[in-house]
Amino acid sequence: MAITSHVLCFQWELFFGFQGLFGVPELSAPEGFRVAQEKALRKTEQLVQRVCATPPGPQTVLIFDELSDSLCRVADLADFVKIAHPEAAFREAAEEACRSIGTMVEKLNTNVELYQSLQRLLADKKLVDSLDPETRRVAELFMFDFEISGIHLDREKRKRAVDLNVKILDLSSAFLMGTHLPNTIEKRLLPEGIRHHFELAGDHAVVDSLRAEAPDDLVREAAYKIFLYPNAGQLKRLEELLSSRDLLAKLVGYPTYSHRALQGTIAQSPETVMEFLEKLSDKLSERTMKDFEMIRGMKMKLNPQNSELMPWDPPYYSGLIRAERFNIEPGLYCPFFSLGACMEGLSLLFNRLLGVSLYGEQPVKGEVWSEDVRKLAVVHESEGLLGYIYCDFFQRADKPHQDCHFTIRGGRLKEDGDYQLPVVVLMLNLPHSSRNLPTLLTPGMMENLFHEMGHAMHSMLGRTRYQHVTGTRCPTDFAEVPSILMEYFANDYRVVHQFARHYQTGQSLPRNMVSRLCESKKVCAAADMQLQVFYAALDQIYHGKHPLRSSTTDILRDTQERFYGLPYVPNTAWQLRFSHLVGYGAKYYSYLMSRAVASMVWRECFRQDPFNRAAGERYRREMLAHGGGREPMLMVQGMLQKRPSIDDFVNTLVSDLDLDFETFLMDSA
């Protein structure tokens, strides 16, 4: 009886035209997820039959993409709703939809007839040569997805590949959960003077983080040693995850997991990644040593009895040096960065660079999951509406504490010639406004807003024929380029001056305050980058040749010694907290390489004039428009008008660390 009343209620809402989430009519109630997924699964079955009956040609790729789109439109939306919706019923229904669609994807990836319909196309050289580059690339990407599942293998090996994929999924989930679990220690083992810094539970102290910003050296040391104390279960999960990934890679024809993960990226191979990391480490080493000396000097000044520099020291002491050299108290900056001013600044920048404006639209009832979510229409001056951005910007209970971009619907050219407009969500965690105070952003929040909006514009301005390569669906070492590039705009006075006004007085943010902020970020930046090189190298070694030459902890110790320089602390296992090993396995280097590309694009195209419309149009044409539909290095080459080398990447990253003395001279003039 209860089920029937739910269905009646649901049909009643549809009859009266209530909107569902993101304007999807079915999603006006949690039960709608089942309706949406069943609809998607029915359509999938029809498309599978259709593609298997279609002679090989461009139409094969179009049907594959439509098949992918019908599943992604439910799965992507559900992926977001399951973590962000405030109502448990919606979250649970979305979780179930993800499982259901995931099962269907596994079935499709092992459907031999479906695989053969694509294989027939790619095996015909004449047909392949007749395909345009984007269609050929998309066909190859679909084939790559098939072969990861071992579909090209004999029955026994195919079963092993499927089993390994399931095992890797389970181990990844369990390892990820373990990276966040707190460690406990008997209270009596902690010095009495620092016990109150930790949560106490009976006779135990609970340590749930590194407490990297704690002023007391002893608190940071205790947190580091306890939080990173090895857990045997987590250690076993990591070893199994790495060996299972290696087995799967070998089974489907790659020498290592890293070779498989890097196919189609800017780097292309693990050898190139290690060359990049080793050259960067060599170039950084002298600067890093100077940074460590400076940090050691600050520690000695405050704690002469114990001035040896340890891994728990740099974040805290580099913050002190920054504060001492530059007066960058966030409270001084916040009044100039109201959310409204920052959004106006973004709209103005996009308008001058790309001919794009952001317009607020009133969502209809049921379209958004929280009343403070804002809907933006992205409109081009001659092309019209490009897509929608839903801005979920404000803190609320149980909302994940992460700033991120979600694709809800990918752009693609439909069979009727219309373009399916992209829809994305930007999620931040900003404070709410009050009656007397608008939402004010710290400089870090403002930079994050620009960063995430870079992802959003990548999604909006991509005009790919296929949703499989829409917007940010591109290799990881290219996906961060548009977002990091936006950070350069956020740190340029000519851009900031256009929007940063005191919310009460209307006064512009003084130029010397912007300069101080930018230069403060370069304090100990070499040591920070060296740490990222160490993490990236560790990730490569873990996903390189197996069996590993020694335990994951011994590899951590040796890699830390070689690529970082501060001593390994016995009885710690930082790798067991390295959550990025799950989502960025063999690809942690991507952030550094994306930063190098973004820096080169900034220097070559925008540093002289951040509002250069011709450069903006070229940026859209050469980089943003293609999503993942073109090889990333070809996009970089098109933008820079040259093919950058590893040395170019390394040199641009290192030169970014130089202090801008011209700025200081201008400020002191």
TrEMBL record:
<keyword id="KW-0464">Manganese</keyword>
<dbReference type="InterPro" id="IPR001567">
    <property type="entry name" value="Pept_M3A_M3B_dom"/>
</dbReference>
<feature type="domain" description="Peptidase M3A/M3B catalytic">
    <location>
        <begin position="212"/>
        <end position="653"/>
    </location>
</feature>
<keyword id="KW-0460">Magnesium</keyword>
<comment type="function">
    <text>Cleaves proteins, imported into the mitochondrion, to their mature size.</text>
</comment>
<protein>
    <recommendedName>
        <fullName>Mitochondrial intermediate peptidase</fullName>
        <ecNumber>3.4.24.59</ecNumber>
    </recommendedName>
</protein>
<comment type="similarity">
    <text>Belongs to the peptidase M3 family.</text>
</comment>
<keyword id="KW-0482">Metalloprotease</keyword>
<keyword id="KW-0496">Mitochondrion</keyword>
<keyword id="KW-0809">Transit peptide</keyword>
<keyword id="KW-0170">Cobalt</keyword>
<keyword id="KW-0007">Acetylation</keyword>
<dbReference type="InterPro" id="IPR033851">
    <property type="entry name" value="M3A_MIP"/>
</dbReference>
<keyword id="KW-0645">Protease</keyword>
<comment type="subunit">
    <text>Monomer.</text>
</comment>
<dbReference type="GO" id="GO:0006518">
    <property type="term" value="P:peptide metabolic process"/>
</dbReference>
<keyword id="KW-0862">Zinc</keyword>
<keyword id="KW-0479">Metal-binding</keyword>
<dbReference type="GO" id="GO:0046872">
    <property type="term" value="F:metal ion binding"/>
</dbReference>
<keyword id="KW-0106">Calcium</keyword>
<keyword id="KW-0408">Iron</keyword>
<dbReference type="InterPro" id="IPR045090">
    <property type="entry name" value="Pept_M3A_M3B"/>
</dbReference>
<dbReference type="InterPro" id="IPR024077">
    <property type="entry name" value="Neurolysin/TOP_dom2"/>
</dbReference>
<dbReference type="GO" id="GO:0006627">
    <property type="term" value="P:protein processing involved in protein targeting to mitochondrion"/>
</dbReference>
<dbReference type="GO" id="GO:0004222">
    <property type="term" value="F:metalloendopeptidase activity"/>
</dbReference>
<dbReference type="InterPro" id="IPR024079">
    <property type="entry name" value="MetalloPept_cat_dom_sf"/>
</dbReference>
<dbReference type="Pfam" id="PF01432">
    <property type="entry name" value="Peptidase_M3"/>
</dbReference>
<dbReference type="GO" id="GO:0005759">
    <property type="term" value="C:mitochondrial matrix"/>
</dbReference>
<keyword id="KW-0378">Hydrolase</keyword>
